[in-house]
Amino acid sequence: MARIFITGSSTGLGLAAAQSLLAGGHDVVLHARNAERAAALAAQMPQALAIVTGDLSLLSETRDLADAVNAIGRMDAVIHNAALYGASGSGRTAEGHSVMTAVNLLAPYVLTACIERPERLVYMSSGLHRGGNAGVDDLDWTRRRWQPEQAYADSKLQIVAFAMAIARRWRDVLSNAVDPGWVRTRMGGASAPVDIATGQATQSWLAASNDEAARTSGGYWHAMRREEPAVPAASADHGDRLLTALQALTGMTIGIDG
């Protein structure tokens, strides 16, 4: 039995993964953006080990969220599921960051830096990462004209690169990225071809399974199969430059194992 924390688990794929893992006998820590959502989630999922709250668009709340997770105890796995797409990621936060960059990229970085190191890390990406811009000099969209679709693709390319960089830096952690496909969720819409049970399966498997294939690191996964990601995502040089840029944006460092 594993103890697993899932961000963005009040709806969609995060909730579906939580339900699957709970059904498998695991202890699951859920996440909601605010107290109102947490109360509704508690009524829906009373079997959860705990529910923590925090707005992932704000680095201050993200750091507090990490503290709340650490107070529960060490996690065996963390699924970084929360993400924004389209208009929901537009605008800038009270701290001055792009909302989409803050939720889709800065929050996973901060949580990874601050949560006690688990055995497994799973980062949710998208097939759209293949259209992402690999540049790291304007991750926060301070110089480019805002384009929500491009910003989403960029963030998903960079989260794959981040997962690969963690796999290289932390040899005692299984770090992987997952493309769940185009799933019928609130984000994906009713016409999406992949049902939600299928969409959540790969990340849940990577987080908890003892299958030999699931106990690997540095992979990009889709539909339970390992695939090659976009070329920049697998580049060690790109990963190092990305980590330097994320450190500058957050003020936090992720170290290298000796």
Question: Features of this protein?
Answer:
258 residues, alpha/beta, 8-stranded mixed β-sheet, 8 helices, 41% helix, globular
N- and C-termini, Cα separation: 30 Å
Count of distinct strands: 8
Unreliable spans are none
Query: What proportion strand?
Result: 5-15%
Mean pLDDT: 95
Structural class: alpha/beta
> How do the helices and strands follow one another from N- to C-terminus?
EHEHEHEHEHEHEEHH
* Strand arrangement across the biggest beta sheet: 3-2-1-4-5-6-7-8
Largest sheet: 8 strands, mixed
Shape, principal axes of CA atoms: globular
Description of the molecule:
It holds the Pfam family adh_short_C2. The protein has 258 residues and is an alpha/beta fold. It contains eight helices and eight strands. Strands 3-2-1-4-5-6-7-8 form an eight-stranded mixed beta sheet, sandwiched between helices. Helix 1 (12-23) packs across helix 6 (196-208) and helix 5 (148-169) packs across helix 8 (236-250). 47% of the residues are buried. The mean pLDDT is 95.
